[in-house]
Amino acid sequence: MDTTRRQMLTGLGAAAAGHALLNDAVAADKSPSSQVGDLCTTLKITKMKATWVNPNVFLRIETNHGIVGWGDLKGVDPRVSKPLAESLFELIDGENPTRIEYLWQKIFRAHRNMRGGALMMHTLAAIDMALWDITGKLWGVPVYRLLGGPVRDRIRVYHTPQARKVPASPVNHAETPATLEKIVANIAAARKLVGPSGAVMFDAHSAIPPAALIQLASMLKPYDLLFIEEPAVPGNIEVFKRLKEQINIPLAAGERDRGIYEMLPYLLHRCLDVLQPDCCHTGGITSMKKIATLAEAFHVPLAPHCTASNLGISASIQVAASIPFLLIHEFYPDNKGFNPGSIMRIDWKVDAEGYASLPTGPGLGIDVDETALETESKKPQTYKWPGQKLKDGSIADY
Ligand SMILES: [Mg+2]
Question: Residue 262 Cα, ligand 1 centroid: separation in angstroms?
Answer without folding.
Answer: 17
